[in-house]
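hey so i finally got around to running the thing on that chain from the lab meeting. sorry it took forever, my laptop kept dying and i had to restart like 3 times. anyway pasting the input first so we r on the same page abt which one it is
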Amino acid sequence: MQAIDFPSPNHRPRQEPSRIDMLVLHYTGMATAAAALERLCDPDARVSAHYLVEENGVIWRLVPESQRAFHAGISCWDGETDLNAVSIGIEIVNPGHEWGYPRFPEAQMAAIERLCQDLLARYPIPAYRVVGHSDIAPERKSDPGELFDWARLARAEIGIWPPAAAPNRDFITDSTEILAGLASIGYCANAESRTAALVAFQRRFRQRCCDGVFDHETAARLSEVSAAFVRSRAATAGPAQISKLKASCSPCR
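ok and heres what got predicted. didnt touch it at all, straight out
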């Protein structure tokens, strides 16, 4: 994998002993790649990422992987809140929802795929810890959004995308069960943030409609994704943890 070095001053050391087991994908939400690079390297902005991927597939390396970049912000996944400490952040050039939100070009997706595969080959990042910014900060963020091709990455063994089955009309409407289902796959949601978390889930796994409504299709998709997360967790867990995972992450019925 080739990347152009363009150092950002916005980083600091990771905690010792360091742990890198998470990958967070963002879009830049700015009009141009040049504007995004400028902001990610502006010491007054205090934001950064390890990599930036342009529409034409050019990859910029902004922060050494050994360092903590400032990309996750106030966020949470699987009960963990200091996500900058354990993650690699990739910014993807796209103007975002406020600027027309175009599709991600083939050259860009191919470069993202190569970059992610390179990182996964070097770090113990399980599939269930490859996430979007909206997954970890659903009340603040919507990136990389519903046009991002998560299914393509999953076919390349990057992240999770289980096949969708025909939904069952008998779906859950109880708010406690909805929150439990979201929590089983990592979302840190409560009664106040439930709708935002559902929108984030839909942007990621039910992309044709992201309205925050827990309809039968969303319920079926949540069940499928929850089961896939159980399998991914079990594949990376020790024998003592597997029974606990089955108990705490059972699919919705």
